[in-house]
């Protein structure tokens, strides 16, 4: 089975509601859809992030994809290593974060292709799953305390066990919103994500104020460039700390573990470079006695399906992982239904990543990108 063709298509995905976080307000996002065909008629599908320019990165992905032509998907690990070595590292442009974000789309499509070729779900190719169901959090949406409170009511009515919300949006707003949400959700788990909003001193002060709302953890309170800053905050507060944007590479995972800078690693295939790198990253965290919480930011159901495979594989998986497709106006996955019930999702054992695209929705998203 030889790879014959690779297609890369930018898709513009509007969100149902403006997405409010410490980095601003987002109304849509774009992904690059990656499709890799082989001479047996199978097509592996993946996606990756597009910042700062979807067209430019689509061209880069097409360039990298030339190295796959004529090769087998079952050479995935060596192919990804070769691409990184020859296209990034060899020129001194040793930028593993950037490379990982591109490789993630290719690697995801290659695993889908391997699974389809073998007629097995990807988790079977990793030796089978550790669990049948993967847990996901409910992601509160809203730009006011009232909207967040109303969404928290919806979460309670749905029986959601884990609630996640953004902070880092202003001291008064953070306190009022968190208080309102905690009063509504009772004893449900609560996660607070500051998305790098604070300096060390502000993080320590804010987390001490938020501690009374009993969060599971506060995620990425300080800037992603400093793992020591996370460690400094963690040593000063009584709330567990999660490392998210500080962790994009295996070296980052190791450094967070080695320096005890966090209590949990929040990481997704879009950052670490795909499915197999996630397994390796989780092993490093496991050795440090830590869990991994799957991170999914500005991703469609394609990544949800890849992350679900990862969730089935990892022994040290958190119970409230991130899921993002439901925030988009359109769903590009025709089947299966990716809606968690009371925070749990168990997808059917289908070959590869286990989904069928809604081709009509894909064409609309591609045209939206081209014409809007
Ligand atoms: Mg986060």
Helix and strand layout, with pairings?
Blueprint: E1 3-21, E2 24-38, E3 43-49, H1 54-65, H2 76-88, H3 96-118, H4 122-125, E4 134-135, E5 138-139, H5 145-157, E6 162-166, H6 171-185, E7 189-193, H7 200-210, E8 217-219, H8 227-236, E9 241-243, H9 250-258, E10 264-267, H10 269-272, H11 275-287, E11 291-294, H12 301-313, E12 333-335, E13 344-345, E14 356-357, H13 359-371
Helix pairs in contact: 2-3, 5-6, 7-8, 9-11
Bound molecules: magnesium ion.
Textual characterization of the structure:
There is one protein chain. This protein has two domains: 3-122 and 359-371, Enolase-like, N-terminal domain (Enolase-like, domain 1, 2-Layer Sandwich); 125-353, Alpha-Beta Barrel (TIM Barrel), CATH 3.20.20. It is globular. Strands 5-6-7-8-9-10-11 form a seven-stranded parallel beta sheet. It has helices at 54-65, 76-88, 96-118, 122-125, 145-157, 171-185, 200-210, 227-236, 250-258, 269-272, 275-287, 301-313, 359-371, and strands at 3-21, 24-38, 43-49, 134-135, 138-139, 162-166, 189-193, 217-219, 241-243, 264-267, 291-294, 333-335, 344-345, 356-357. The protein starts with a strand and ends with a helix. Helix 2 runs antiparallel to helix 3, helix 5 (145-157) packs parallel to helix 6 (171-185) and helix 9 runs parallel beside helix 11 (275-287). The protein contains 13 helices and 14 strands. With 372 residues, the protein is α/β, with parallel strands linked by helices. The structure holds magnesium ion. Magnesium ion is lined by residues 193, 195, 219-220, 244, 266.
């Amino acid at each position: 089975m030889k790879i014959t063709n690779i297609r890369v298509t930018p898709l513009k995905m509007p969100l149902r509601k403006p997405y409010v976080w410490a980095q601003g307000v987002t109304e849509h996002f774009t992904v690059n859809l990656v499709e890799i065909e082989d001479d047996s008629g199978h097509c592996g599908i993946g996606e990756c992030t597009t910042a700062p320019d979807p067209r430019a990165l689509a061209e880069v992905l097409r360039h990298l994809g030339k190295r796959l032509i004529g090769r087998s998907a079952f050479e995935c690990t060596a192919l990804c290593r070769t691409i990184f070595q020859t296209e990034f590292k060899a020129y001194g442009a040793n930028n593993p974060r950037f490379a990982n974000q591109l490789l993630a789309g290719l690697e995801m499509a290659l695993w889908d292709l391997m699974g389809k070729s073998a007629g097995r779900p990807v988790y079977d190719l990793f030796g089978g799953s550790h669990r049948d169901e993967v847990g996901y959090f409910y992601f509160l949406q809203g730009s006011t305390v009232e909207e967040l409170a109303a969404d928290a009511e919806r979460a309670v009515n749905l029986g959601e066990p884990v609630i996640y919300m953004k902070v880092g949006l202003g001291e008064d707003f953070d306190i009022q919103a968190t208080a309102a949400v905690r009063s509504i959700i009772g004893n449900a788990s609560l996660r607070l994500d500051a998305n790098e909003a604070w300096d060390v001193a502000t993080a320590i002060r804010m987390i001490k104020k938020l501690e009374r709302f009993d969060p599971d953890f506060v995620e990425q309170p300080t800037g992603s460039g400093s793992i020591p800053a996370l460690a400094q905050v963690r040593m000063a507060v009584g709330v567990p700390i999660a490392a998210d944007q500080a962790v994009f590479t295996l070296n980052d995972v190791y450094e967070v573990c080695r320096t005890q800078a966090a209590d949990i690693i929040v990481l997704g295939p879009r950052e670490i470079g795909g499915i197999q790198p996630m397994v390796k990253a989780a092993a490093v965290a496991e050795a440090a006695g830590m869990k991994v919480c799957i991170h999914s930011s500005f991703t469609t159901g394609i990544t949800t399906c890849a992350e679900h495979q990862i969730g089935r594989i990892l022994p040290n998986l958190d119970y409230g992982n991130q899921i993002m497709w439901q925030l988009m106006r359109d769903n590009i996955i025709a089947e299966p239904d990716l809606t968690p019930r009371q925070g749990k999702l168990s997808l059917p054992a289908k070959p590869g990543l286990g989904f069928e695209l809604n081709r009509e929705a894909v064409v609309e998203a591609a045209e939206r990108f081209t014409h809007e």
